[in-house]
Amino acid sequence: MKEFKVNPDFAITDEQSLRSLFDATHALAIQKCQGTLSTHAQAFIRRSPFLCIGTQNLDGKADVSPRGDPVGFVKILDERTLAIPDRPGNNRLDTLVNILANPTVGLLFIIPGFDDTLRVNGRATLTTDPELLGSMRVNDRAPKLAIVVEVSEVFMHCAKAFRRSHLWNPDHFQDRTEMPSIVKIILDQTTGAPSDEDAMRKIDDDLEDEYKRTLY
C-alpha cells in the first residue's frame, strides 16, 4: 500500500478556516453544555453498562479505553463527581498512567439500544479508598482502585453517528468468524501464530477460560 500524505494545499490549519466550512452552531448546541450532572444525566449514567474514557499524556499521546460492567457501575457521588471502578485488564495501565501525567479526561456513556449518548468532561484522580472500593464489589471482588472524575462539562450527544452506523440494527451485525480471533491477530503481529489449527484453537480456548477466571 502506497504511503498517504495530506496535500498541504488542502490542509485545514486554523480555526477560522475550519469554521468557514460549516454553518453557525445552533444556540441549543451551546446552551446544552452543563457544569453539573442534572437529573437526566444521572438517570442516563445509572442505565449505562458501558463507557469509553479518553486520556492524554503530557506529550500529547492520546488513548481511548472501553470500560464495561453491570448497569449502573459508575457511582454518582454528587452532582459534580463520578467514580469508575478499574477492573482487571492487561496491566498496560495506559489510562491510569495518562491520568497521573494529565488528569483531563473525556467520557462517552453508551446504553444498548439508545442512539443518543452522554458526554462528560472533567479531571480525574485515582483512589484506593476502601469504603468506595467496597461499594463497587462484583462477585464479591472489589477493584484495586477507582477513577474519580470531577465533572466540568456534561451534555447529550445526538443520534446521527449511531444511526449512520446502524450499530444496534441486527440486520447490520457482522459475523465475527470472518476475522481471526484476537489472540491470532496479536500473534500474527508479534511472535507468529501456530499454523496448526488445533494448537490455535487451544490458545483461543485458554483465553476464554482466562476471561472467566479474571473478569473480576
Automatic annotation (TrEMBL):
Alphabetical list of SUPFAM superfamilies matching this protein: FMN-binding split barrel (SSF50475)
Q: What residues does the Pyridoxamine 5'-phosphate oxidase N-terminal domain cover?
A: 40-158
Output the Pfam families linked to this UniProt entry.
PNPOx_N (PF01243)
Taxonomically, which superkingdom? Bacteria
Output the InterPro entries linked to this UniProt entry.
Pyridox_Oxase_FMN-dep, Pyridox_Oxase_N, Split_barrel_FMN-bd
- What is the protein name stated in its UniProt record? Pyridoxamine 5'-phosphate oxidase family protein
Which organism does this record belong to? Rhizobium changzhiense
